[in-house]
Structures are given as structure tokens and as C-alpha cells.
Specification:
With 243 residues, the chain is α+β, with helices and mostly antiparallel strands. The protein is built from ten helices and seven strands.
Length: 243
Amino acid sequence: MPEISSISVKVARGGPEGAQRMQQFTVPAYESQTVLDVVTWIQQNTDPTLTYRFACRVGMCGSCAMMVNGVPRWTCRTHVDKVLKNGAMEIAPLRNLPVIKDLVADMDPFFDKWVAAEAKHHPSRTRDDPIPAIDPDAPERLVASAGIECINCSVCYAACDTVAGNPDYLGPAALQRAWTLVNDAKDSARDAILDAVSGKGGCHSCHSMGSCTAYCPNELDPMSAIAGLKRETAKRYFRGRAK
């Protein structure tokens, strides 16, 4: 690829031992260059101590997600020419998560909230039972299928202002997964899931601002999933009051 110019890049450095600082780099710009290419160039050519996370490089794993000019993105799928501002950009770790070092965020709190939301499959049969047929066009299956392409990248979590203001909030990804399981005919714990997502920090903490849906790289709709949980938990509550 021919070199066409250079770009000015500020990269967040440091870890939990102190406040992060921004370090300036000048990086050659190339055609079809991604933000992940820029980070890799810095690590390979300027500062080998720069710490970041990536795996597939093709938008399949989500591990390269970072904040680019204040917006959470998959850096492997974000082209530099789409995000440059006056020939410059800033790269930082995902917000709303602890920082391990430089551009690497600690994902443990994100996954801990999946567990808290009961966002894990609860088998209704054993491996010795016959596998029941599921109609892929059934309304519940269509709802469940709408969120199964989530790859746990945490972009929605980093985009969420409710998470930023309420550390107890379970977050869009965990709640979307819970909604998927509520509508999954093969999951046996519908009531347990609704109990988990209706408590403190659950679906009713969502302010419906929509950043999760707006920034999801897989074009999923966590906000609608959370709205579904709000409806189901409310209906269950009022059915219980009516008894």
C-alpha cells in the first residue's frame, strides 16, 4: 500500500496504578488502513511496550474493541479515514471497565454481570433425552434468534451511559442474552431469569437512551430486548398481584 501521509495519534497509556496519560505518536497513513493497523504499527515500530488486545482481525471475535475519539468501536473494522479529525485521533481502552494496562480493559465485571443476570443456558433435558424439534419461524424463536449474534465484545457496555452512572446496572449485553433465553423453548429457567433481571440494577434501571443499539457493530438491538424484559417482568408482577 502506498504511503499517502502521516497522522497524529494520541494513545492512552498506563494502568490501575495511576491515572492514564495520553502519549503522542506520528504514524504513516496508508490506504485501507484500520485503527488496529495503527496500534500495531506503533507497537511494532515505535514502542514495543504498548499493550493491547486482538485476535481474529476480521470482526469475528470483538477482542480489539477500544474507544476511538470517544466512541467504542471494533478497531479491526474501523478505517482510519472514517474517524480522523483534522488528521488526528485518540485511542483509549473501553470505558466503564477497569484498565489492566494501556488499551486493555478488564472484562471480568462485564462477564460477572452475565452470570448475575442468569444469562446462561439452563438445560431442560439431559444429553440422554431426544432433541426436540424447534420451529425456526415460531414467534418466540424469531425473538430469541434476534440476539444470538452477540459476540461479547462489550461495545454496548462501553457505550451505555446508565452503566457509567450506575455500577450495579447489569448492562445491555447481559440483559439481551437474558431476553434471548426467556424466549428460548429449550431453556428451563424463565422465572429465575426474570427474577434476576427485575432486581437492583436490572432491566428497569435502563433509561432507554439507545446507545447500545446505535453502536452495536453487529447491528443488534439490545434496547428492544431490554424493553421486552421490562414488559415481561411487569406483566408477571401484576399477574401475581391479581391472584
